[in-house]
Design goal:
single chain, mainly beta, OB fold (Dihydrolipoamide Acetyltransferase, E2P), five-stranded antiparallel β-sheet, 5 strands, 7% helix, globular
Length: 104
């Protein structure tokens, strides 16, 4: 399955669900203990959050190789964001990845 949802449709009501998203890397921020990936498709942006303390080493290492406009697919749990954003439709949630892979 390429995706279960688009990057613009997930809301707080989806918390706890396992979803698969596909899109382009809009941006990536690496603060050492946390990595954030903004994943974009034609419908919106969803934030992917990786806590380096809890995530598998393979996910962390692979995430650190990503650049802007890389095309990826991510499967993970929808969680409520600690620091919500009213600037994007999906600003109340984020995805904690279980795995991801390059599409191209």
């Amino acid at each position: 399955m390429l995706r279960s949802h688009t990057c613009g449709e997930l809301r707080i009501s989806h918390v706890g669900q396992t979803v698969t998203l596909s899109g382009w890397v809009q941006g990536i921020r690496d603060k050492g203990s946390l990595l954030w990936i903004d994943l974009r498709d034609r419908y919106g942006i969803t934030q992917i959050t990786i806590e380096t303390e809890n995530a598998p080493k393979e996910i962390i290492d692979n995430a650190r190789t990503l650049g802007r406009e890389f095309v990826i697919s991510v499967t993970g749990k929808v969680i409520e964001r600690y620091s919500k954003s009213d600037k994007i439709e999906t600003g109340a949630i984020e995805i904690t990845p279980e795995n991801y892979f390059y599409i191209s």
